[in-house]
Amino acid sequence: MRRYLICCEFHRERRAIRAADCIRRLATDWEHPMTGVWLIRTDATATEIRAALMQELTFRDRVLVCEAGEEVAAFNTCEAGGEKVSQIADARSKSQILTAIFSRNGKASRHLKAATARNLKSA
Fold first, then answer.
1. 122 in helix, strand or coil?
2. What's the pLDDT tens digit per position in 14-25?
C-alpha cells in the first residue's frame, strides 16, 4: 500500500466533485486537508490514479500525483473539509503565535488589518 499526494486545479467546480468521488473510490484511506489537495492510501500506481482522474478532467484542469512519505507537517488545515481557519477566535485557540499576530491587548493588530485589507498594493 502506497501513500500519494494528489493536487488538482479545476476550471469548472463541478469537475472537482466528480474527481473527489473518483479519488474516494480509489483510496482505502484518504484525507482532504485543503481545497484541491488529497492524501490517499491505495494499491494503485501514480499513473493509474492519473488515468482514473483524466476521465473527469479537461485540458483546462491540472492534476499532479506523486508518492508521499509518512512524515507530515501541517498548519491551518482541516483534515476532512479542506477549509482554512477563517475566524480569528479559531486561530487564537489553535496557536499562541497567531494570538500575537492577530491581537494586541484584545484589539485587532495592524498586521491583521494589513493582511485583510483589500486595497493593498505590492511593492
1. coil
2. 888 899 999 999
Cα 35-37-41 angle, rounded to 5 deg: 140
Answer for the pair 37, 68: CB distance below 8 angstroms, yes or no: no
* Distance separating alpha carbons of residues 51 and 57, to the nearest angstrom: 10
CA dihedral 78, 81, 86, 76 (to 10 degrees): 20
Q: Which of 33, 73, 102 is nearest to 6 (CA)?
A: 33
How many angstroms from the chain centroid is the CA of residue 35? 4
> How many other C-beta atoms lie within 10 A of the C-beta of residue 102?
17
Band (52; pLDDT cuts 50, 70, 90): very high
pTM listed for this prediction: 0.61
3-class secondary-structure state, position 113:
helix
Closest C-alpha to 35, from 8, 55, 72, 56: 8
Nearest to 64 by CA among 11, 5, 1: 5
